[in-house]
């Protein structure tokens, strides 16, 4: 059976001076720093390719920030960008709001917080895992079709879907403290496969030195 690796990349910093929880809203573009991050992660994959990595397939969420992060990766690897809605940001009832912490003190929103383990304010974690893993499986098979053994694919997505997919891959509970997510801007969470069997999870931060001071309001 063919071995393969799927790299789940979080997008770069978004220009969001009002600190809106942007979720699936359109036209939230990368900031200047976010573009530097996108270039950095593109360089990361270019170096991997130069070292022999068999990078053959690139996919991105349809949201602007993901497409803009994928663009320099596509240029570096000379790949087209396939778009897959299954790796979209999570649905969230607070989408479009700013100053979320202050809003949570308003009794009007308390019903949305009744079950944080699901979570009750948005798309269930299990549903996110199911759709992302379906996209991962299709990308894995397409990569092997294009590149054979040790083929690799890059999927540019969003923090929460990537994080809960990693938790599921590691056999952990999906409920978590959002402050504890290990999924920084333009980080790379890698799922390694032997055939259809998931055999390992890896994590890297190509933009680690660019993170201090970066705005990090999650989409969900």
Characterize the structure shown.
Helix 1 (32-50) packs parallel to helix 2 (64-77) and helix 4 crosses helix 5 (159-169). With 220 residues, the protein is α/β, with parallel strands linked by helices. The chain has helices at residues 32-50, 64-77, 100-103, 125-147, 159-169, and strands at residues 3-10, 54-60, 82-83, 151-157, 188-194, 197-204. It has a single domain (3-210), classed as Phosphoglycerate mutase-like (Rossmann fold), CATH 3.40.50. It is built from five helices and six strands; from the N terminus they run E-H-E-H-E-H-H-E-H-E-E. A six-stranded mixed beta sheet has the order 3-2-4-1-5-6, sandwiched between helices. A hairpin with a 2-residue loop joins strand 5 (188-194) and strand 6.
Write the layout of secondary structure elements.
Elements: E1 3-10, H1 32-50, E2 54-60, H2 64-77, E3 82-83, H3 100-103, H4 125-147, E4 151-157, H5 159-169, E5 188-194, E6 197-204
Parallel strand pairs: 1-4, 2-3, 2-4
Antiparallel strand pairs: 1-5, 5-6
Q: Could you give a quick summary of the protein structure above?
A:
The protein has 220 residues and is of the alpha/beta class.
Strand arrangement within the widest β-sheet reads 3-2-4-1-5-6
Distance between the termini: 37 Å
**CA gyration radius, whole angstroms:** 17 Å
Give the structural class: alpha/beta
Number of domains: 1
**Sheet bearing the most strands, described?**
6 strands, mixed
Task: Give the CATH superfamily.
Answer: Phosphoglycerate mutase-like
Beta strand count? 6
Q: What is the helix tally?
A: 5
């Amino acid at each position: 059976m063919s071995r393969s690796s799927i790299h789940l990349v979080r997008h770069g910093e978004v220009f969001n001076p009002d600190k809106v929880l942007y979720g699936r809203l359109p036209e939230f573009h990368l900031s200047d720093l976010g573009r530097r991050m996108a270039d950095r992660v593109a360089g990361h994959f270019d170096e991997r390719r130069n070292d022999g990595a068999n990078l053959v397939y690139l996919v991105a969420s349809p949201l602007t920030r993901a497409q803009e992060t994928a663009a320099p990766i596509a240029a570096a690897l000379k790949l087209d960008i396939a778009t897959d809605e299954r790796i979209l940001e999570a649905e969230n009832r607070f989408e479009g709001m700013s100053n979320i912490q202050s809003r949570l003190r308003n009794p009007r929103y308390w019903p949305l917080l009744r079950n944080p383990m699901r979570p009750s304010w948005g798309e269930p974690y299990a549903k996110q895992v199911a759709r992302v893993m379906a996209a991962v499986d299709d990308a894995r098979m397409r990569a092997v079709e294009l590149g054979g053994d040790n083929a690799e694919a890059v999927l540019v997505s969003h923090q929460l879907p990537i994080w809960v997919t990693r938790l599921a891959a590691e056999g952990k509970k999906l409920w978590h403290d959002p402050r504890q997510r290990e999924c920084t801007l333009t980080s790379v969470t890698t799922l390694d496969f032997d055939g259809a069997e998931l055999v390992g999870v890896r994590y890297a931060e190509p933009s680690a030195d660019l993170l201090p001071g970066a705005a990090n309001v999650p989409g969900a």
